[in-house]
């Protein structure tokens, strides 16, 4: 999920959210990877329903800013199988979550216990290599710094899931949104949990058409951007 700001010495712990799913709490920046009101319901609302399911293509490329717990990727994999989509999923992560934390996360148990092996394969698969996880879902995990990444693919859907602008302002700059805009196909959809006016204006300044949408439980609004 969110590209981590902390140093490796910062303590990370697992917390239970209100919908019964886990999240990770990073003490070094006093922030969780997901909403305390529900990790799974937040990710479904913002990234699956508002972004993936708003894309009309049946074969598409998804780019996630961050990989983190792998929840967004796992939900996308399940949705691709359910709908018969062919998804090429690209994500970039500077600080991967330690496998001992991944093994304790309850996302597969809550969502689809028979896919526990797929969830673990996502985390254990090699970095910087395209991995076919199923007939409908392929994964490319890039280990690196998003702010210096040179985009070489074209995206149809973007999950912008960095830590908040207060914690990682460099991730939310016009330079970064400009690079993403150029890497997007016409009609591409970008969503984020952040609804700050400065973020909306920054997206608009780089060419996106941006709208406010109702947020998930516990959050009044979110943003969706379209490359028209």
Summary, kept brief:
The chain has 228 residues and is α/β, with parallel strands linked by helices. The protein has 7 helices and 11 strands.
How is the topology of this model organized?
Blueprint: E1 12-16, E2 22-26, E3 31-32, H1 39-49, E4 59-65, H2 71-83, E5 86-93, H3 99-102, H4 107-111, H5 116-124, E6 130-132, E7 137-143, E8 155-160, H6 174-183, E9 184-192, H7 197-205, E10 209-214, E11 221-226
Parallel strand pairs: 4-5, 4-8, 5-7, 8-9
Antiparallel strand pairs: 1-2, 2-3, 6-7, 9-11, 10-11
Task: Write a structural description.
The chain has a single domain (12-226), classed as Vaccinia Virus protein VP39 (Rossmann fold). The radius of gyration is 16 Å and the shape is globular. Residues 1-9 have low confidence and may be disordered. Helix 1 crosses helix 2 (71-83). With 228 residues, it is of the alpha/beta class. The chain has an eight-stranded mixed sheet with strand order 6-7-5-4-8-9-11-10. A three-stranded antiparallel sheet has the order 1-2-3, with no helix packed on it. It contains seven helices and eleven strands. It has helices spanning 39-49, 71-83, 99-102, 107-111, 116-124, 174-183, 197-205; strands spanning 12-16, 22-26, 31-32, 59-65, 86-93, 130-132, 137-143, 155-160, 184-192, 209-214, 221-226.
Which short descriptors sum up this protein?
28% strand, alpha/beta, 228 residues, 8-stranded mixed sheet, disordered N terminus, 3-stranded antiparallel sheet, single chain, Rossmann fold
């Amino acid at each position: 999920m969110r590209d981590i700001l902390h140093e490796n010495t910062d303590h990370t712990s697992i917390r239970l959210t209100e919908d019964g799913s886990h999240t990770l709490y990073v003490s070094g920046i006093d922030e969780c990877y997901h909403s305390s009101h529900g990790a799974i319901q937040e990710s479904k609302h913002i990234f699956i329903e508002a972004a993936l399911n708003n894309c009309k293509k049946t074969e598409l490329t998804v780019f996630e800013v961050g990989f983190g717990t792998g929840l967004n990727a796992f939900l996308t994999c399940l949705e691709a199988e359910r709908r018969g989509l062919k998804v090429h999923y690209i994500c970039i992560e500077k600080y991967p979550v330690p496998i001992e934390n991944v093994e304790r996360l309850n996302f597969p148990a809550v969502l689809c216990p028979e896919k526990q092996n797929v969830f673990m394969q996502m985390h254990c698969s090699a970095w910087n290599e395209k991995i076919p996880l199923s007939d409908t879902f392929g994964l490319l995990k890039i280990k690196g710094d998003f702010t210096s990444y040179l985009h070489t693919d074209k995206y149809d859907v973007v999950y912008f899931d960095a830590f908040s602008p207060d914690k990682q302002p460099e991730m939310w700059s016009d330079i970064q949104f400009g690079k993403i805009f150029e890497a997007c196909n016409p009609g591409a959809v970008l969503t984020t949990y952040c609804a700050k006016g400065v973020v909306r204006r920054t997206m608009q300044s780089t060419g996106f058409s941006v709208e406010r949408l109702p947020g998930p439980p516990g959050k009044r609004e979110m943003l969706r951007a379209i490359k028209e």
